[in-house]
Design goal:
Blueprint lengths: L1 E2 L3 H5 L9 H8 L3 E5 L4 E3 L7 E7 L2 E5 L8 E6 L4 E2 L1 H6 L6 E4 L3 E7 H10 L1 H19 L6 H8 L7 H19 L15
Antiparallel strand pairs: 1-2, 2-9, 3-8, 4-7, 4-9, 5-6, 5-8
């Protein structure tokens, strides 16, 4: 594990690109980097979440094991600038997929607890992250939301930027991912806290 990363590198990561320099410095103060060799697992499906990982160099594969003993399904590849582990950061649920290195890879790691502290103490980061989650829901799962007012709140990013709303958005995305893979999905209502 290496400590420290320069600001120019993190500014190139799409997820962080539009943050202010002071917000980026705040994030950097909590990060470390990890290096994986070909074939190494970053984490495995079912493990407890520990944080958010951003791929800096290399290539990763997302694998889902539907049933024990069967060959895992390759869901997608992760390329530099993309991230994994974001759902677990918000909702604390076990990893929904395994991540395996397809080549030597270097990742930026932001621990879950540090992320939570940033969300609670840095309103601009919280607002930015909530906005990114809203964009993901609209891009990937908008058809799963039946209530037009709820859909409008998400589309307009008119939600309070707090952990509760981030958890709900992640749950929508998790359920959408399950339905895309044909894994059992439970239907439930969504109750957000709007902006005051």
């Amino acid at each position: 594990m290496e400590v420290g990363l320069d600001l120019e590198l993190i500014e190139k990561i799409p997820f962080f690109r539009k943050l202010w320099p002071d917000d980026l410095k705040c994030i950097l103060s909590y990060t470390t980097t990890h290096t994986l060799s070909y074939g190494d697992f970053l984490f495995k499906q079912g493990q407890a979440p520990d944080g958010l990982y951003v791929l800096l160099v290399g290539k990763l594969q997302v694998l889902i094991e539907e049933k024990q003993g069967l060959k895992p399904i390759i869901v997608r590849e992760i390329m530099p600038g993309q991230y994994v582990g974001e759902f677990g950061v918000f909702d604390g649920k076990p990893r929904s997929a395994s991540i395996k290195a397809q080549q030597v890879s270097k990742l930026l790691f932001l621990p879950a607890k540090a992320f939570e502290i940033m969300i609670l103490t840095q309103p601009s980061i919280a607002k930015y992250v909530l906005g990114k989650l809203c964009e993901l829901v609209i891009d990937q799962a908008h058809d799963k939301i039946q209530n037009k007012d709820t859909l409008s709140m998400i589309r307009d990013k008119n939600l309070r930027p707090d952990i509760k709303n981030m958890k709900i958005l992640c749950e929508i995305l998790r359920e959408n991912n399950k339905s895309l893979l044909g894994i059992g999905v439970k239907s439930k209502g969504v109750l957000f806290s709007s902006k005051p």
